[in-house]
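Weekly structure sync - notes
Attendees: PM, LS, DV (DV joined late)
Agenda: review two folding runs queued last week.

Item 1: First target. Sequence and structure tokens pasted below for the record.
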Amino acid sequence: MPDTRHALVLLSGGQDSATCLAWALAHFARVETVGFDYGQRHHVELDCRERLRTGMQAMPWPGTLGADHLLHVDVLRELGSSAMIDEVAITLQADGLPNTFVPGRNLLFFTLAAALAYRRGLTVLVGGMSETDYSGYPDCRDNTLKALQVALSLGVDRPLVVETPLMWRDKAATWALAHALGGDALVELIRRDSHTCYLGQRGVLHDWGYGCGQCPACELRARGWRAWAQGNASV
């Protein structure tokens, strides 16, 4: 039997959040989703969200998939330039972080998710952040999100739990988790209908999914697929 708590999954439309949605459906009685339109360069990821939800709704899960919510967060564009938002080359900044880093993005997303969860009677927030295979974003770190869980719970005066099932999994382990949760059908849904490419390209379907094949997000996803596929005879 699933956990009786109700969860809210931060569903971007990417591989990681799609895997987290499946994880939540396997663990919690009811699951809702929230996405954020912040003017991202890879806006096509938002178009993937409904296909992922429809595909997962057709699969048997212990939990029930509930409502979806899309919030507009245009303010992030007003705070400064980023390769995640603007048509600029992806490079490293002076501080060593890639210029795809949008400062405060996950902090804001979780704050809005907590407010939505308060209104909807949800007590678990699920995000696909990981500090195993990632670009070094400080708002993806385990310590950041543990601290945020405390602050959000205090801020809404009710206990909230922030779950990050991918925190200590690399991309190969993320593919493996998807397969363990939903078999070949879930892996294929995520491969075809999720989107991770920073440049928003969906012209070519690679063995690991759609994308330019050259940006950091595509390289991580492709490398993880190859590592997982080598040990999986069904691929």
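Item 2: Second target, run right after the first with the same settings.
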Amino acid sequence: MELTVYNISGEETGRTVSLDDAIFGIEPNDHAIYLDVKQILANNRQGTHKSKERGEITGSRRKLKRQKGTGTARVGDIKNPIFRGGGRVFGPKPRDYSFKLNKKVKRLARKSALSYKAAENKITVLEDFTFDSPKTKNFLGILKSFNLEGIKTMLLLPSTDTNIYLSARNIPEVLYLNSKSINTFDIMKAQRILIVETSLNDISEMFENQQAVNNQNT
């Protein structure tokens, strides 16, 4: 797939780049995307929820009334779950929600997500740029040039540029990422993806290295 390279003013540079079909042109696997997103969200859960059970409630252990002869149901102490303020039955306990997912599946999920965005023409390639100083106004100018104001946008750069990061971090719709730190959830969540031209090589290199490591382990 050939894409036109733009400058930060939204103008065509007259150059094109070719997206790697092995990354941006595969048949998307929806189930792999589902599993990877599920794992990412599960790993982000704190799992610190906790409710007090009957034995953890502060209160008297005195039996409220005699067992028989009252004409009503038998009850124990005030910490009985049927009473207001009593302990909770089978309440939530701290737990770890994370689970294992094979690296091949995660790699397939990222490729599938990128292929979806490429097929939907939601990827724009920018020529390399930088800012002399951090100014949010400068980055808003880029968004305005591509009519991306108010749209969830992911910006992928080959390395961390402090001035660009500081310019973009105050814009709630913009996610700034190193091109080697992409994940399926962020890709699918983004409505548009801006990729700096040099980042394409980093993305290809990342997947090649992961494939090489996998081949060594098998």
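Discussion on item 2: Residues 63 and 142 are 72 Å apart (CA to CA).
Action: LS to circulate a short write-up before next sync.
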